[in-house]
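Please predict the structure of the following assembly.
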Amino acid sequence: MSQPLKYMGQGLAYALFAVVLGYFSTSPEYTHMPADYALVKLSFNHAAQRKKPCHERTDAEMAKLARNMQIRKDCPRERSDVVVELELDGKQLYHVVLPPPGLSHDGAASIYRRLPVPAGTHRFVARLKDKLEGDFNFVREENITLGAGKVMVIDFKADVPGAPGFIFKN
Amino acid sequence: MIRLLQRVGQGLLLRVEKGFNAVFGAELNPMYQLGAILFFLFWVVLGSGFYLYAFYRTGVSEAFSSVEKITHEQWYLGGIMRSLHRYASDGMVIVVLVHMVRNFVKNRLSGFRAFSWFTGIVLLLLLFISGINGYWLVWDKLAQFVAVATTEFLDWLPVFVSPLVRNFLTTDSVNDRFFSLLSFMHLGIPLAMLIFVMVHTQRVSGAKTQPSRPLAIGWGLTLLVLAIVKPALSQGGQADLSTAASQIKLDWFFMAIYPLIYAWSPGQLWALVGGFLAVLLFLPLLTRNRRMKEGFQIATAPSMRTFSAKPGETVLEAALRQDIRLPHVCRDGACGTCKGTILHGTVDYGVYQEGTLSEQEKQAGKALFCCATPLSDLEIEYYENETLKQVPVKLMQCRVHKMERVTPEVMVLYLKLPQGSKLQFFAGQYLDILLEDGARRSFSFANAPNDYEFIQLHIRLIPGGRFTTHVFTQMKEGDELSFEGPLGTFFLNEASDKPIIFVAGATGFAPVKSMLDHAFFIGSKRRMLLYWGVRMRRDLYMADLPERWEREHDNFTFVPVLSEPGSDANWQGRTGLVHEAILQDFPDLSGFQIYSCGSLQMVQAARPAFLAQGLPENACFSDAFLLTTPKIVQPAEEVQT
């Protein structure tokens, strides 16, 4: 191959490399979410109520324990599951039962869930149960308008004085 | 299955490499310098990164604005640096993947190479972590997507007490310290890469860590042009966690798997990534050659050296590892530089470019030492002279001091070394002029070693030859040249007292002149005859010099021989082929030493004829035969004696 042809070939090889590099560094465009959708993110950490309440040990119970274990108040560590439901315009969007983590099942349950929903006005109902028996003990419902591309975060805080429960951030 | 993949891959790879050889030449073929190119790209990333870091502000509100400022307010430098930083990183991904595929296809990943393979996997992971981490620093919409997607992906692993992605739930979730942490990681991970690179190359004999200069220039310019034509820009303004982007321009080199987090699920993607990594980790085990359980011993002759080869190690790798400098250039069976002779033993010839080693050559015991792995103990031909260690090879600059056109086809160059520099060599050795594209042209020293004021070269014009044409048409006094030398094992054997016949063809006179000058300088009393063969009388471009020697030294005889005297009626001297004149004059050559310098054709014709007339094999020296480089198969211009 003659020298000018070689140089041309080298130029072509470098150009081809540059085209591949330049193109795939930004293209093709990725559609992450339909343009007319919004995103709901349900996420929180919450330690559920204990399965059994604390109780005072009797003398007989104390006697059965080693001396160093003889503590009057007995609090079983195991917590209840956290049950969460999210409803959108009367239809159940999400339902989950979160068992408490940890070897003793006494940790705070965590959840993160991303739920794309069509943009517009919707009625959201969030429910949570963190005890062994009974119905949902935390419920919040609200009409919310979500613009296209907006992110709404549904958080839960049980320790907010006066208003424990779900927080809708949009 | 794996072997089949490798065989198919080898066929494809050899074709691609052949294409690159045609365009770049074996010396500059990027496929043979992937590791060195990675080093180059890494330095570009590091250099541009340090520049960007000087202007980068670590804060939620400052991170994006500082990047925008760098990109737009000083686009001519900061903007270019940002683009170079991105494109060199992207380039690293491509080159790393090709590098891995190539080593897999060529089965260079098991046995002693497994260590480099495993450290290479670590480097691959570090490269991806560092690249993705870098995108977070910009804190634009792409950074937001990558941060959220990465944490959503990581959260699938049951190791985090609280989901990581909660750190990106709302704008309030991110604080300034987060960017300090990101910056720290973005400095620390490349540092870890640097350490692993050292470890990675540590077991590769003679690993090349710098690409040839023309290749570095080519890659650098390509990145620069791309940086100007398509600068790297931020996407969609500053990150805003209260909104989610619909369309994103991903950097597919680093983020190709990100869409799968959502198209599949993080768990499925972990299965894919984990499976891929597991395959990579097990490949050395799956591809190991069960035949090669033990290493072999390799002995060289006539140089009495021995060295060991590990299982699967090529002869060249083993030699270099044990400091035996077998000749080589491309190390991939394309240039033929490492071609040598196997005297005893068998090898697996390996994978090499068609045409570099013929079947006839294999039959004659030849092999490409860069590709051949021993299947038994070996004895190979290798010439090494202890005395060569006295004249170390150097890379030097010089200036053209004087140009003397002694015939229309011959130019005598006088090269001046920089003030205070001195080059030691043996009479008969040569140097390589280094051309800008990395190509080399070899010329013998025509001056004697004691005459060190100027290096003298005799350049014969080769029609169409790039360098020699340059010498005759464009070179001027004062021009700078780079060269490597001294090279070669062809030089005067001073230990013998046998009479010497020098056979010079055309500019083959140059090394002979050096040797004779040296012999006279040291007062040698050996009988010496010079047969200088040229076409016509005018080609005896320095005839007055040997004629003077003849007058001054009783032990010296000069016999010029013209092959085409033509109409030169005054020519009373010898005619015909130069070696035939010697054969006529000396029916018995058994008591002589012959040094032949000239074209390959002349040496090839003369050698068997001399041997047939009684010349002992160990008394027949020629640069064409004794140089352990492949110059005998290169175009005429590439070597002149």
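Chain B is about 40% helix and 15% strand. The first strand of chain B starts at residue 247 and ends at 248.
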